[in-house]
């Protein structure tokens, strides 16, 4: 997409997340999404990972003061239309980032609470989870937990659509932010996401991509694409639709990039994919 210009300058978006040496997820996926939406991409490295699609072999966490120094370098110099946070690996980093981002309340923030791996293993210690719940989520315009993360944040077990609604409501009530609960981990059911926000409750579904080459980095890509859409001035339900459309097309166009590596594709204009690829029924009486 061509650069998106407003008032003579390109709109910028910011990712505060971990770096993926394989270029599939994390900051690299976020930059790819921002560029697809025509935005300039700013990045703050909150963690360094040695990884490929098979897994993560090593992690280095920068000193929290250096993470804040990056924020201090970026925030005054760029007109950030929206930002997202991803991997914030420790309580100290979470608290430092939250304190700095609290000083910029006018920037919409999408918080991807990277806490629980697909396997169910916790990626954060309990004190870091508490900091995520108490310090980061209240700053968010939108939180995007997956099902295991929502179980940790809400304290509820999720096995049905009704359970998803209850968990999303509990997180929204506790944090005061909109919640997009991602349903991709729910066994034996089509993947549907649930959004609770000021505009109402919505369920989102996208077509199934049979045998995709890659799905690595879809969570990062979704939160980044939603942030990009918010930076362009979309209302939150529309931004989620665009984010879902972007991820659907990225999965559909995924491809191999090496003997043991695949990567998500780079979609063209994602807003053209929204109808009919993404189903978004509104739930008038609540979920």
Note down, in words, how this protein is organized.
Helix 3 packs parallel to helix 4 (126-136), helix 5 (147-154) crosses helix 6 and helix 7 packs across helix 8. The chain has 9 helices and 13 strands. The protein has a 9-stranded mixed β-sheet, with helices on both faces. It has a single domain (5-277), classed as UDP-N-acetylmuramoyl-L-alanine:D-glutamate ligase, CATH 3.40.1190.20. It is of the alpha/beta class. Strand 12 and strand 13 (261-263) form a beta hairpin.
Give me some keywords for this one:
287 residues, alpha/beta, UDP-N-acetylmuramoyl-L-alanine:D-glutamate ligase, 9-stranded mixed sheet, globular
User: SSE order in H/E notation?
Assistant: EEEHEEHEHEHEHHEEEHHEEH
Low-confidence stretches: none
Which strand order spans the largest sheet, edge to edge or round the barrel?
A: 5-4-3-6-7-8-9-10-11
How many β-strand stretches? 13
Largest sheet: 9 strands, mixed
Distance between the termini: 36 Å
Can you name the CATH architecture? 3-Layer(aba) Sandwich
Brief characterization of the structure:
Helices cover 36% and strands 22% of the residues. With 287 residues, the chain is of the alpha/beta class.
